[in-house]
Amino acid sequence: MTQEELDELMSGAVDDMDALDDEVIDEIEDDEDISEDMFEEVAKSEKPVTKSDKPDGYSDNTAHHWPLPATDENKMVHQLDDVTKESEEKATEIFDIIENISSDLMAEEENLQKVVEAIESNVKLFTTLRNKFPDVAAFKTQLEINETALEDMNGTIEILQNSGDSIMSVMDIMQYQDIHRQKIERVINVMRALSKYMNTLFEGKIDDEKRVSSAQHIAGDTHNELASTDDIEALLEQFGK
Fold it and tell me: Partner of 229 at 20 to 30 A CA spacing, among 92, 109, 120, 205?
């Protein structure tokens, strides 16, 4: 802008301010000394104003003070119902697996008993042959082999029997899972009963839509800073995030 134009502005000769603004903008655009980098620097220096989606005073240290949103993941009775259902299903699967293992152990024990009977018969036979033919070394060797095999088979059968007893103990312990499920179900029933009782206790004869709106300020109030409906909805929305 030249000195003459400035003098005209001061003297009131320039009445159209919008036109003047256009002139100034055109001059700035035509000015080669003002580059686009300067505009970018100015834009970067301006800090954008962002609104936090968390309530005032919320932090990682105070997160446990704020209520959880009422979603399916946080509804107490809903969660307890899922726990009882899933635990019962898993317990049934465990019982089926344990029962199959126990059946396999019993079947193997019966088979080994038959093998033991055959080895015992061999031991008796080679014992008789060794006594009648003490000079035959093969009878003595086979007797020792069968006696060792009989000891090993008896040890294996004992392990199978102990494993079966352990499985029975596991099944007895698993019975406590059903007791725990019953305890949780009892808690659920009490919570549902309390919920129904509270709903009945606060139940009114007049629908909320037909109620007379309550006064915002009454005598004796120390301040008039009351939360509006929009403020309450915004606060609930923040809690739900």
Answer: 205
